[in-house]
Amino acid sequence: MKGFFITGTGTGVGKTVVAAVLTMILQCYYWKPIQTGVDSEVTDVDSVRSFTGLPDSHFLDSAYSFKEALSPYHAARQEGKDINLARCYLPATSGFFIVEGAGGVYVPINQQHCMLDLMQQLALPIIVVCHGTLGTINHTLLTIEALRARYLPIHGVVFSGELFTENREAIEAWGKVKTLFHLPLLTLKRATLQTWALTQKKQILAALDIP
Prior knowledge:
The protein is an alpha/beta fold.
């Protein structure tokens, strides 16, 4: 196992914060293959670097970076470019990776491929990040079904924000997945996130069950 691919049930579900927690706990590499919104004040890579406090050597260059905060396909098209999946293989670096996708599983990468195709190409176990409140059962089970239709291995689910216990139980039962951990609502500052991650480190490592 070279690492995990972090996907979500949509944009804004907490993938980047979860990626930061895992990168910090595992002291591993972080890689965002396709980064959009680089003209924003803070990119996902910037956020993970800030949250973890790890040196720059832990952060690998994206295969593609685009200015607009759009889907990869539309951000690339705005710049008259096309994304070639052949350029999106894991960097030739030994060690463990946390790879963060963009949006959900069907987010388009180019006219032929979506995020599912990138996951298939990288062949990493998938961690699905989802909300824990109303609507999450449908969104999460549809994401799980899409991953299983491509025979992609699901390592587990992480709930982000407020969590209804009934939703977790339903997703575990219907989706036949395990919950790795629950990331509660936190003030998104380095000290707060690092303190929480350190208190949960033992439990998270046990849940990840890395060989």
